């Protein structure tokens, strides 16, 4: 297929003329349901049909008003029904290409292309082409990310024949880690909230709904312990099934592939590409020269079953307020050993193993802060419960019961301190700039970040009055990649300065200047 870089304005694929009105109707489903229920109960005119017609016309208008083009310098999208808006992404600032497709688009062979530029703020969403053919999307990926430009605007730039080396592929046993993500709890809560909202708008009591009424009648005939047991069992079954379903929908067919392409600028065009999804598919390509590190994430439940997930610390993945919305996923929740193996392959450090290196722990002052903060929370909760008991608002056993939280608080403090650690390692990878920072923190959600010095742009010291009394600071390493801020809490003043000097040349120069003036 010819590369669309002739500067001509183009429409989205014709199939979007069908999809756009349907999408707009789905957005207004709650309003249409309310109008339908109210209209039937009050014998008013069928306003829901008029509103639906206006929504369909608006969807058609959005399709008709949208144009896009690729020039030698930028990608531009022009749209707007009532007001014209033009979005521009300079080609030299393009960092990532994210291709996704929901079920309707897959049915018509269309995809959505999101072009990441690595910016933050109002323009963080970059440029989005919502409704082009997959062939066009793959051509745009080659043209924009791998810089397969031709001298003229009509040269063939079809995707390369190199299908890459598969680093990881979906395995059925990965499904066992789905329930440990608690995504089913969130889904169940969202479905319950939506159902209650619709019943409220329809002025229907939940107890009047047939299935709910039958369940309540069944529970009313049981003892309290049987009620608790059956409710707990039902919650576990529902959340487990929802977690498995969510995992399948999000990560079915997952593949992590490394492409090697020497045609990129600078002679290093290797890229990591992830693809996943059952009904709605998604494919994200990250140029490896934009990859400045990785982050291993281990929530408490996932850690208990020896699982973890892996994300990329790269530029160009931010969307909105520094959230990548899943574009940074390198591995979903999988066995921890698989995560460690992919970490080694992605980092590709020839001289060191930052994945399993022993980290430098914090000192006694940081340990005291963990225990003091944990016990302070329990004391505050007990004091609040005692006040409520004194005002005769709760029974007397409530303040006593809060004392049972002392042991869990102490265990949490111990685990939080054990998680704290860091190391600055010498590195030989050409993109590491000679140093790699490894940092770990967290208990309920443990995070281990490996960050190359090439991605570090600054360091910030912060200390609360309590930290200053203990001689501690929180060192924040700033970068344009990932979450843009990575914290190293409760470091000794001297250690924080050494870490910052190893990662930020300006700090090292300032430190040497101060040392020379002292002499």
UniProtKB/TrEMBL annotation:
Pfam families: bPH_2 (PF03703). InterPro entries: UCP026631, YdbS-like_PH. Keywords: Membrane, Transmembrane, Transmembrane helix. Residues 65-142, 434-500 form the YdbS-like PH domain. The chain crosses the membrane at residues 25-41, 47-64, 174-196, 224-249, 371-390, 396-413. The keyword Transferase does not apply. This is YdbS-like PH domain-containing protein. It comes from Nakamurella flava.
